[in-house]
Amino acid sequence: FEWGTSSFSLSNTTPQQSLYVPNTPYRFCDQITGLTPCRTYYYRAVARNSAGTSRGTVYSFTTQCAPLQVTCTASPNPANVGQTVVFSANVSGGTGVYSYSWSGACSGFSSTCSRSFSSPGTYTATVTVTSGNQTQSASCSVTINQPVRPPVVITLPPVTTL
Hints:
The chain has 162 residues and is mainly β. It is 0% helix and 49% strand. It has a four-stranded antiparallel β-sheet with strand order 2-1-3-6, with no helix packed on it. Strands 8-13-12-10 form a four-stranded mixed β-sheet, with no helix packed on it. Strands 7-9-11 form a three-stranded antiparallel β-sheet, with no helix packed on it.
């Protein structure tokens, strides 16, 4: 077999097999490993004998896509009022091409979303990721604390007694 990721360039080959089949149809098979998930491959049968080489019709198949998995994190966590928090989407599977949409405590359309908060509390952002025909969402929260203020030192003039 000749195979590859383009129907015009079948640059990979399986090991040659000796084949003797007395009756039609002439069937043979081989197995290839190490294929990338969610990828289309093209292949054709090749037969050789003393009279020459014949190549069959090019066919294709698409390997199964890995399930889309999404998680998110907020950093730093906890954070202080006024401090920038970065929400990050962590994605695997799918087709390898992702589109992002943030909602809740953050908004945007990239793999990260930054925001600072003016009040203490717990804030939750949700990211929705689409890859091919798969969509998954994940939420992450950050705790915002009131910043600790440094102590105030008051210096009084010395007291003198007469």
